[in-house]
Amino acid sequence: MRPAIFPLLPDAGCLLLLLASWLFNPTRSEITSLDSGNIDDILNNADVALVNFYADWCRFSQMLHPIFEEASNVIKEEYPDKNQVVFARVDCDQHSDIAQRYRISKYPTLKLFRNGMMMKREYRGQRSVTAIADYIRQQKSNPIREVQDLEEISSLDRSRRNIVGYFEQKDSDNYRTFERVANILHDDCVFLSAFGAVSKAERFSGDNVIYKPPGENAPDMVYLGSLTNFDLIYAWTQDKCVPLVREITFENGEELTEEGLPFLILFHMKDDLESLEKFQQEVARQLISEKGTINFLHADCDKFRHPLLHIQKTPADCPVIAIDSFRHMYVFPDFSDLSVPGKLKQFVLDLHSGKLHREFHHGPDPTDVAPGQPIQDLASSPPESSFQKLAPSEHRYTLLREKDEL
């Protein structure tokens, strides 16, 4: 009879060691490293991608690495398909071309991509596993609310910008294009859709998309282009959802400041919509050509008392118009001059030419002094920028460069 053979079992100490190793060293998620050879392919094929732009020497990047990896572990359990959600990273020292392509100005920067397109708003929330995971879940949620009865449209919140799509069927190229646009701009507009019999009354000429601007009596605007041309419908929707004059708040201040453009700001009381409307009209009339060189904003006088104090104003002085160049603040002389042709535009041009800065330090330019009047060198100290304090904090990011505006 052959002797029985029993496998050798590890002793109790070995078992405990193996168990501890398994408990305290969970499987780490493989974060996808991006380079110039694979970045387009990986991002273009990802429904949603969160990319960590980092540098190894940056202590904030070092602190984020384990948090980012653990958030990836959590999310990949919920979205196992590799193309549903991608967590990726770019070593900006090794791939400076990619960092430059996406205008990275601080480490670490977390940017969201949808099907290869970078979203305007980067992730600026809490740097914790829970917060990052919740952010991704939110990004994966449907950005379009389906309407079951057209009566819902008549009761929309008209303080918001609403985009409504009426489609014969959900499984169509028209709706898929609409869905792509909504995925990108859902932070700026409310998107709704209706299908089949529910939408029939609004489809007398086929599928269509309508913009309902803020205001109970504001007229609707109809999109007249091709519903399958993504570039056209995206440009139209972005124009409607992102106003020329935006409101600055403490929540979006960092984002607006990081755009790097000086601010032209109307300070007004919250219920003073008349002054805001005048400002919007004059910006559109006089300054549309300056879009891209300066940000047009409006701010609540009560909430932004501190910047007003910097220019020796109080809410009682509102409405007030000022420029914040991120170095100094300059006040538009008189709000009542707003409608004087070219006056507001000249104020902005004087910023770009350096005239506002020179006059604060040296008095009026010689060309502005009446003949025979002596030229005086009047030393002066313009108020320092107040909104620069809303820029990304050096206690949260490694900032790569300082901006030197006028």
From TrEMBL:
CDD domains: PDI_a_ERp44, PDI_b'_ERp44, PDI_b_ERp44. It is found in: Endoplasmic reticulum lumen. Residues 1-29 form the signal peptide. It holds the Pfam family Thioredoxin_6. One of its GO terms (biological process) is protein folding. Residues 363-392 are annotated as: Disordered. Mediates thiol-dependent retention in the early secretory pathway, forming mixed disulfides with substrate proteins through its conserved CRFS motif. Inhibits the calcium channel activity of ITPR1. May have a role in the control of oxidative protein folding in the endoplasmic reticulum. Required to retain ERO1A and ERO1B in the endoplasmic reticulum. Forms mixed disulfides with both ERO1A and ERO1B and cargo folding intermediates; the interactions with ERO1A and ERO1B result in their retention in the endoplasmic reticulum. Directly interacts with ITPR1 in a pH-, redox state- and calcium-dependent manner, but not with ITPR2 or ITPR3. The strength of this interaction inversely correlates with calcium concentration. This is Endoplasmic reticulum resident protein 44. It comes from Smutsornis africanus. The gene is Erp44.
